[in-house]
Design goal:
With about 270 residues, the protein is an alpha+beta fold. It folds into three domains: about 80 residues, no CATH class; about 90 residues, no CATH class; about 50 residues. Helix content is about 30%, strand content about 20%. The protein has five helices and nine strands, in the order ααβββαββββββαα. The strands form two sheets. Strands 6-5-4-7-8-9 form a six-stranded antiparallel β-sheet. Strands 1-2-3 form a three-stranded antiparallel β-sheet, with no helix packed on it. It is rod-shaped.
Length: about 270
């Protein structure tokens, strides 16, 4: 019989208090014995609950709006646990988290890093700046992105905020991918950029780029034609000047010869 003191891990007396893993599994008290998912590496790599259907160790996450979900892995591509991936509501089963071990997460091997969104600020009418902390590397980061991509195209609802679970992954140059869950636990991947200049350059459509390239080519052709014309006219001008000089020179020699002959006659 339990004496309500120094409870063993498997104790279900109901008097364990906050954090006691053997607390009674009353659905109204599940938040007491399930560790909260926080922005720490351990929360994303060490499972915090058991599946109530199959008993597998899983990640159980609930947001500020009361919605909850079971994940096999807490990170991109955000695989939900199949037993509970339906409209039914399930209560997570507790287990001794001291026995839990860090799982080998594919998102770590794929280059994803945990990103905590601290604030979102407007840049102009079309762009916003996302400021946060890279939890994996413990450093502050700032990204620029298109404002419209923060909203759902159909419902225009906000997709992410400062309470959203998010990850980042470096691509090429200043380009990154921001992966996050909305309030309904739907995953999204959005392109973000480290600098506003990189965002502006990416906002130029391929058609616009091709048009600009064509314009550049045509302008270069026109310039080359003008250049060749200038060279040609210059060479023609030089040749004309030479001819004039030769003509003047030849006329002068004739005149000199004529003058000499005239003098001899005299």
């Amino acid at each position: 019989m339990c004496n309500a003191w120094n409870h063993p891990p498997d104790c279900t007396c109901g008097w364990g208090g906050a954090g006691h893993s053997g607390r009674s599994t009353d659905s109204s008290n599940w938040r007491v014995y399930i560790p909260i998912i926080q922005y720490a590496i351990q929360s994303f790599t060490v499972p915090n609950a058991k599946c109530p259907v199959c008993g597998e160790i899983v990640f159980y996450y609930w947001n500020a709006f009361g919605s909850s979900v079971f994940f096999d892995e807490l990170g991109p591509p955000w695989p939900k646990h199949p037993c509970t991936d339906n409209s039914n509501r399930y209560t997570p089963q507790p287990f001794d988290t001291r026995e839990a071990k860090k799982t080998s997460c594919p998102w770590e091997k794929d280059g994803w890093e945990i990103f905590k969104i601290n604030t979102v600020r407007p840049i102009d009418r079309y762009s916003i700046r996302v400021i946060g902390k890279n939890i994996t590397k413990n450093c502050e980061l700032t990204f620029c992105m298109e404002k419209e991509k923060r909203f759902c195209p159909k419902s225009k609802r906000l997709l992410f905020h400062t309470r959203s679970l998010a990850f980042i992954k470096a691509r090429s140059g200043n380009k990154y991918i921001l992966s996050f869950l909305d309030d309904s636990f739907n995953p999204y991947d959005i392109e973000v950029y480290r600098t506003l200049y990189a965002l502006r350059d990416a906002q130029v459509s391929p058609q616009t780029k091709s048009l600009s390239d064509d314009r550049k080519k045509s302008s270069s052709k026109i310039k080359s034609k003008k250049k060749h014309k200038k060279i040609r006219t210059h060479s023609e001008r030089i040749s004309k000047e030479k001819l004039n000089k030769l003509e003047k020179k030849s006329k002068t020699e004739i005149e000199i010869a004529f003058d000499k002959a005239k003098k001899k006659k005299e």
